[in-house]
Structures are given as C-alpha cells and as structure tokens.
Design goal:
Blueprint (H helix, E strand, L loop, with lengths): L1 H24 L5 E6 L3 E2 L2 E9 L5 E10 L2 E7 L7 E4 L5 E8 L9 E13 L4 E13 L5 E4 L5 E3 L3 E9 L4 E6 L2 E4 L1 E2 L12 E7 L10 E6 L5 E5 L3 E3 L5 E5 L2 H14 L14 H23 L20 E4 L3 E7 L2 E8 L2 E4 L5 E3 L4 E8 L5 E8 L2 E8 L1 E2 L6 E2 L4 E4 L11 E7 L2 E3 L2 H4 L1 H15 L1
Helix pairs in contact: 2-3
C-alpha cells in the first residue's frame, strides 16, 4: 500500500512538473516598446527602447537596423559598450544609442526596419521565452535647402522687418533666428505673394530691445527627420537710443493700485512674499514677479495667431492721444527718496480724455479680453503672422475672445486698472509675444517700404 501511495505521489509530482514545464513554454516573452525613431530620422538620431522581463531575468537583448537585406547592430546585451543600458523601474530597463552617419555609414537614405529581440528566463531559469518588436522607419540624410528671395533688410533696434525666402522640402519647419529668438515663417501665398509656390515663405522678425546689435541673423530650417540647415542673409542694423527715467512711487499710488491687484489677481498669490508684507513689498512683488508671470502669459497667447495677415495698411494710433512715455524706456522707481526697483517699459502710454473709447488699431481677431494683472482689464488682438496689439488699463471691455474686429472698432473704454497711476492707454505691438516698437507700424511709409513692397516684388 505504501509503495502504491509513493508511486502515485511520484507520478503526481512528475505530472505537475511536466505541466509547469509545458505551461512555462506558453508564458509571454519580455515586453518591448520602441520609443524612437518611429518614422523619419536624419543624419543624427537616437535609438531608444524599453524592455520589461516582468518576473524573469533578461538573458539576451539584440537590436539591429535592417535595410535591403543587410543588418547593422544597434545594441547587444553581451557587448553593451556601443549603447547605454539604464534601469527605468524595478523590472524595466531602457536601451539607447546614437545613430549617425559615422556609426552607420553603410545605411542609405530610404526605408529601413528596426528590430529588437529580447529573451527572459522562466520557471527558475529552466526555460526561456523570446519577444520580437519591429518598427518601420525611413532615413533622410539631405538637409533642407534654403534661399533668400527678398533684399535690403534694414532692422531698427527694437523694431521689425520682413523677409521672403524659399525652403525645400516645404514641410520643413523654418523661419528666422535672431540670436536665441526664433520667428517662424508662413506660406507666402497666404501672405499675399501672388503666384507663390509651396516652398516660398514669409517671416516677420525683429531685433528685440534687449538683444545685442551684433546678434546673428539667419534663415533656419529643420525637416521632419531632424536635419537642419541655416544661411545668412544681407541685413543692416540701426541702433536706437532708449530713454531713461525716474518714476516716483508715492504712498497714495500704492494705496490706489496694490489692493485691487492683490484682490483680482490669482497669480499674485503664488509670489514669494515676506510675512505680513506692507504695500511697498507687495508692490515690488507685483512690479517684478507678477509682471514676469503676465508677460509669460502674453507669450503663450502668441501661438494663437493666423498664418495670414489680418491687418491692412498702417496701424492707427489712438485718436487725439499724447505719447506720455516711449518704447523700452528704462525706469528707476523711487520711494521716499530711495531707489526701490528698475523695469523696462515695453509699450507706449497714450493719454487721452477720461474713459475715452479704445479702438482697434487694425483688423484682426481678439485672443484675450479679460483681467491680466499689471495690465488690468486688457484686450489683445491678433493681426496674423505672429503680430498682435495689446490695449491695457481699460475701465471696461466690450469684445470677447474669438471676436473679429476691423480697424477703429471699439474694444472698450480707457481707464486706470492694473498698475496705472492715471487714466491712460498702455498700447503695445507684439511679435510672437515679444514687444516691438509701435512707431514703425503707425508709419505708412515704413509699411510700404518694409512690408508691402517686398510682398509686391516677390510676386
């Protein structure tokens, strides 16, 4: 009887082991996810994939790129020196390496396939399971081609200019880079260049007030594969003298503006302040920290722009208004005889009658009509191609975001909301969110020479 029981136990153990062995053969292999490249890639690309052996151990990893029957290694667990292996989670690892014309010189432009094979142990190492992942890619090694169509690019410090150029392939991202600032190009046909093909682009660009006069200016392009190209173009820069002024900050002014901004601005509550700050400390936080937050919001709004011009001809200054301060004035703020702050005033303060109707300086689409911190009740109008106008310190607003407006259409009434000591309009012209001088856009001769003529000649 004992022998029979033992025999049954042995058979059961054998059956269980056989079942586990067979079951292990049906276990999944490691999970493999190829992150990049997954489409086009250029002269320099990064290969990256994640592998998770789950409850097993990785015993083999091999990644290759295949093309026309040939294969070139990307990574191997046995010789990882050509790539990197990093731990992402407790079980998942990431493999990566750079693919360049030097590391894979035999690779030709055209379709290819990335293949990753990985093996993990199962059943305490008695068996192994393999997974294979593939992704189709395409190599593109030729950089974009660029050429400049327009000529005579004259740029005032703090001012704008227009350039017409060609880029192939037409789907490459392109524009003008001035120093570290990038100004995208737009289809020339939409900008009014008659007969323009898909490769012709138009870009508004600027040498901003805080950039060096010697900042490099180049037309640049980057295609979908990551290949880059850039060319210089003829240009001449004209320096401008920005004014300096001292602005008294009285206790009466602080009592007038600070409590309202503190009450209405959600962003103010995010600013670092000393315990129980007085009005001056709050004002300094508003004039510095809140100003930066508001300006960042304005730059983020710049992406909401039409690819075609919505304006027509010169912009119009607020009627019967006097310019109280200029563009890019350097202001030193003085309280009780002490210098307490310095800021750059990036617009024009236009004085008119109290509660004067504020009119659109040109045609466009309203992209902001709400309270905006130091700017108070504020309207921003998009005029296309990254060009926008800003109207601040209003007492009331009669338009909404999304409204289309024409030149001289009323936006609201002037006032003294936000960081304003008296009733006036703070007017600014923005290019991709960065302030530029409005003087040029008010000037019909500048519009004709720098904008209209170039579009006409390119046609």
């Amino acid at each position: 009887m004992i022998r029979l029981v033992c025999g049954v136990v042995v058979l059961a153990v054998i059956a269980l082991g056989a079942g586990m062995f067979i079951g292990a053969g049906r276990a999944p292999g490691p999970t493999i996810e190829i992150h990049q490249p997954t489409g086009l890639f250029g002269r320099v690309a990064t290969f990256e994939a994640s592998i998770d052996p789950m409850d097993g151990e990785l015993t083999q990893v091999d990644a290759v790129i295949e093309q026309n029957g040939a294969s070139w290694p990307l990574f191997s667990l046995t010789t990882p020196d050509a790539g990197q292996l990093t731990q992402e989670t407790q079980t998942r690892v990431k493999i990566s390496r750079e693919i360049t014309r030097e590391t894979h010189a035999e690779l030709a432009a055209g379709p290819a396939t990335i293949v990753v094979r990985a093996t993990r142990s199962v059943l305490y190492g008695l068996r192994e399971r393999e997974s294979i992942a593939r992704v189709a890619v395409e190599a593109r090694f030729d950089p974009p081609r660029l050429s400049v169509v327009s000529s005579f690019h004259y740029v005032n410090h703090g001012g704008a200019e227009l350039i017409v150029y060609r880029v192939t392939p037409p789907d490459a991202e392109s524009g003008v880079r001035v120093g570290e600032r990038f100004f995208p190009g737009y289809p020339a046909a939409a900008a009014g260049v008659a007969g323009a093909d898909d490769a012709t682009r138009v870009a508004l660009f600027a040498l901003l007030h805080d950039q060096d006069l010697t900042a490099a200016m180049r037309v640049v392009a980057r295609d979908a594969a990551g290949n880059e190209a850039e060319i210089e173009f003829d240009h001449r820069v004209f320096p401008k003298q920005f004014r300096r002024s001292r602005i008294p900050v009285s206790d009466r002014f602080l009592q007038q503006v600070v409590p309202d901004i503190v009450a209405r601005s959600e962003e103010f509550r995010t600013l670092p302040l000393p315990p129980e700050p007085d009005l001056l400390a709050q004002y300094l936080a508003i004039n510095g920290g809140l100003r930066r937050i508001n300006d960042d919001r304005i730059i983020s709004l710049a992406a909401d722009t039409s690819p075609q011009p919505l304006w027509d001809g010169p912009f119009r200054q607020l009627g019967n208004s006097q310019v109280e301060s200029g563009f890019a004035d350097h202001r030193t703020y003085v309280h009780d005889g002490q210098e307490v702050d310095q800021q750059i005033h990036l617009g024009f303060d236009l004085a008119s009658t109290a509660n004067a109707p504020i009119l659109a300086s040109n045609g466009g689409r309203v992209i902001w009509a709400d309270y905006l911190g130091i700017y108070g009740d504020c309207v921003i109008v998009d005029h296309g191609m990254g060009l926008q106008s800003l109207y601040a310190h209003l007492s009331s607003i009669v338009v909404s975001a999304g409204d289309t407006v024409v030149i001289d259409e009323q936006l609201g009434l002037g006032g003294r909301t936000g960081l304003a000591g008296g009733d006036h309009l703070h007017f600014a012209i923005l290019l991709h969110g960065w302030p530029i001088t409005p003087m040029e856009w008010w000037d019909p001769h500048w519009i004709e020479d720098r904008i209209t003529r170039k579009l006409r000649v390119a046609s």
